[in-house]
Design a protein that fits this description.
The chain has helices at 3-42, 44-47, 49-74, 82-104, 107-112, 119-125, 132-154, 168-203, 254-268, 300-306, 314-332, 393-396, 404-419, 430-438, 444-447, 453-462, 474-482, 494-525, and strands spanning 212-220, 224-231, 239-246, 278-284, 287-293, 297-299, 344-345, 354-357, 362-364, 371-372. A hairpin with a 4-residue loop joins strand 8 and strand 9 (362-364). It has 545 residues and is an alpha+beta fold. Helices cover 53% and strands 10% of the residues. The strands form 3 sheets. A 5-stranded antiparallel beta sheet has the order 1-2-3-5-4. It has a 3-stranded antiparallel beta sheet with strand order 6-8-9. The protein starts with a helix and ends in a 20-residue tail after the last helix. Helix 1 crosses helix 8 (168-203), helix 6 packs parallel to helix 8 and helix 7 (132-154) runs antiparallel to helix 8 (168-203).
Length: 545
């Protein structure tokens, strides 16, 4: 693994861990300040109640400041610039003690008081944040404050017979040493970060798929997991990719490996702006992987979770449909190296497999079960493959299929994008599977009145159960969507509206995921009767609230 990639991985980790580390510093400072305040009050009879009370009051204020900050950080409140505020507060505490000592006693006492001994330690504490700039800044703040206190408070009131160590020449040395404590801390932080990056490179070498450095996991399923990764070959060139890695339990499954190779072979032949591009396939150790284009955004499913019960903006849905039609038209009309039609079918088009970038780009992903209709070794009559709730009737019945199953799935997807509700239940029980055959399909406008009749017709035509009545091709569906006018017109606002929806969903999704996890945990801990046989989740919100 390239050292720069290891350093970047460490930097990313430090940035993500910054709120937790800041909270740890706040807790430490709150405890230390509180204990010191108690000691100051307890020593009042010895050091004098004026000094003891003043020190105790200052320390109580500091303890409260860091206590409140710790509580706020635990609740997710964090701003990177606040680290500088905290460093300034931490290293400024001795300045307050200096002023108190000089006012209550003398400047000579203030210049030799024991609390000044902790100044360099507070500067060194800044190194816990892992930033050289913060460490140097802490040393500069402390040295500047000390110098200003001497120039404007101590020196004018210094007695002529004061110790030579308190005179300007040697005091300058003190200031330089205080600043040097920040520099030394910065050197240590830099050395530690370099060693940590090298250790990270060595430890994570087994997780690097050849030339790919794995970062966080961005998706997982029953057969594979997907990581954000950095492609870092020799020479320093780096590129962010999504790396699909099969699960260890399936690494020895010859049938699964054959299908995984077929997916890689098929995807390598697809080159379209609305399809996630495959850049590499290989093996590293005992694991196989597929490297793909990384889409900086969210899946349509996550966006719809945020827009549940409401639906996406109308022009965004029309634009989404046009882009998906372009991808399906390309797939359905793809020809092989011999110039003959490949008769490809995706077979698994649904919101989780539609990726949306923060620029409003639309990409179809996961061709894991996409197959040529003529391939009898992988496409068998009577075998149902695809996600329940998005299967066309003929697909659910295990009958021979063609590209029109993808158009039916497109219709379901657009219906849900317009209404914010599931059209069919997604369970794999017989009652749920039969819904695709007999459950009434409402027009989107019945659930969302502002949907225009032209868009209603396009969606309902895609959802026709009889093959002879369904839209014949993705190209025809695209042309129909281009004819949608009014507020639902895709151009020129559709892509911008979709990009704004993705950005909003990216901001709100973490909180939504937290609530969903809490709901699932509550459901698991509650002993409730199971739903009656035959109940469905059609026309219900995507999430339970």
């Amino acid at each position: 693994m390239d050292d720069s990639a290891g350093q970047r991985a460490l930097t990313d980790h430090l940035q993500k861990d910054a709120p937790q580390r800041e909270a740890s510093v706040a807790r430490f400072m709150a405890v230390v300040a509180a204990l010191a305040a108690v000691a100051s009050f307890a020593l009042g009879p010895v050091i004098g109640w004026n000094l003891g009370g003043l020190l105790g009051l200052v320390l109580v204020v500091l303890a409260l400041y860091f206590f409140v900050q710790d509580r706020a950080l635990r609740r997710g409140w964090y701003r990177p610039a606040f680290r500088w505020v905290n460093v300034a507060v931490e290293v400024s505490a001795p300045s307050l003690l200096f002023i108190a000592d000089s006012r209550l006693y003398s400047v000579e006492y203030a210049l030799t008081a024991p609390p000044l001994a902790i100044w360099a330690s507070l500067v060194a504490l800044s190194g816990f944040r892992g930033s050289r700039a913060l460490s140097i800044g802490a040393g500069a703040i402390a040295a500047t404050e000390y110098l200003l206190l001497y120039l404007f408070l101590a020196w004018p009131n210094l007695s002529p017979d004061a110790l030579v160590t308190l005179k300007p020449p040697l005091f300058v040395v003190r200031v330089l040493l205080l600043f040097a404590s920040g520099v030394v801390t910065a050197v240590f932080v830099g050395h530690f970060n370099r060693r940590a990056a090298e250790a990270l490179s060595a430890v994570r070498a087994r997780d690097v798929m050849g030339k790919y450095l794995l970062h966080e996991r961005i998706g997982s399923g029953g057969m594979a997991e997907v990581f954000k990764a950095t492609y870092c070959p020799e020479g320093g060139f780096e590129k962010t990719v999504a790396l699909k890695k099969i699960l260890p339990a399936l690494a020895a499954d010859s049938d699964f490996l054959r299908l995984f190779r077929l997916e890689a072979e098929l995807c390598s032949r697809l080159n379209h702006p609305n399809i996630v591009q495959v850049v590499d396939f290989g093996r590293h150790g005992d694991s196989f992987f597929l490297a793909m284009e990384f889409v900086d955004g969210l899946s349509l499913k996550r966006v719809l979770d945020v827009y549940q019960g409401v639906g996406l903006p109308l022009p965004a849905v029309t634009y989404l449909g046009i882009e998906l039609c372009q991808a399906l038209d390309y797939v359905h009309r793809r020809v092989g190296p011999d110039g003959k039609p490949m008769n490809l079918i995706h077979r698994d088009l649904n919101p989780p497999n539609v990726l949306l970038s923060q620029l409003g780009e639309v990409k179809v992903a996961d061709f894991g079960i996409a197959r040529a209709a003529s391939r009898t070794d992988v496409t068998q009559v009577g075998v149902v493959k695809g996600k329940p709730g998005y299967l066309a009737p003929e697909q659910a019945a295990g009958e021979p299929i063609d590209g029109r199953v993808d158009l039916f799935a497109l219709g379901v997807t657009l219906h849900e994008a317009l209404t914010g509700r599931r059209l069919f239940p997604t369970g794999d029980d017989p009652a749920s599977l039969s819904a695709v055959f007999d459950l009434p399909i409402p027009k989107p406008s019945q659930l969302r009145p502002e949907v225009p009749a032209t868009l209603d017709r396009v969606v309902m035509k895609l959802l026709e159960r009889p093959l002879s009545s369904r839209t014949a091709s993705a190209r025809a569906a695209r042309e129909q969507l281009l004819e949608v006018t009014g507020d639902a017109c895709a151009y020129p606002t559709g892509q911008r509206a979709l990009a704004e929806a993705v950005k909003r969903a990216a901001a709100e999704w973490p909180e939504l995921a937290r609530r969903a996890a809490e709901y699932a945990m509550a459901q698991a801990q509650t002993d409730v009767a199971s739903s009656p046989v035959g109940s469905t989740d059609a026309n219900k919100p995507l999430l339970p609230w």
